[in-house]
What does this fold into?
Amino acid sequence: MSQEDEDKVGEPLIEGLSDGEPDTAQTSSKRKREDDAKPQSKRAAKKRKQTKKPKDVDDDALDTEQGVNHAIAHMDSQLMADHVAQRTKRFQPNLSLVEAEDAHIPASAIRDASSWDQGRTTDKLPDFLEKYSGPRRKKSKKGQKLSDAPEAKGSPHTLVVAGAGLRAAELTKESLVAKLFAKHIKLGEAIETVKNSRMGIGVGTPQRIIDLLDNGALKLDNLERIVLDASHIDAKKRGVLDMQDTQPQVVKLLSRQELKERYGVEEGKVELLFF
It folds into this structure.
């Protein structure tokens, strides 16, 4: 690969025993320690509860060996929109009607990828992108390929959203076409890198992408699609839409006004793909 090609692609962007009568002071002290420990125990129990996978996730669809939730592959645009809305209601139950409407992702924004039958493991991502993104670029961008980057710096045509920094790094390593925006890279460093780099495809966690957009380093002018790494599950059988730490950030990103205005339109269209 030439240096020019590399520029277009971008570079890869954690108590003692006692005898006799009990001592009143010691008993009171012990009771106080137990009382003090109760709130912490409740918080710990709540945290443990939050780390479990949602009860409505079908275990039969979860392939822990490959790290894939196969149910995602069978969802068309409407089912996927319903799935995201269900997760929003679960993890953000206190949203007002107006807030819930603002957070809603319409089915018209989602590209139906249920016909993809080659699996959704990491090594299949490049082929998935080529199938669902390549034809549009060839038609509307005068034959440009996915590996071709827009001239403007910090303005990718594709964003891939991963649930964690390590997962983003894994996707970058496999596809060799992405720039990494991950948690283990300091925000200041990421800002400078993005501002000064051309990139075709960017990979990152939802919050990091939001931070780069808010800063202005990352631009949406040339964006054509956002790909959510939705099928991947971790060791606890949770995907990016199944965790309190990531689902609200995903919805916050996808429901940005500048993106929602471009869902389902002809000119400057941005479509959502769930891998």
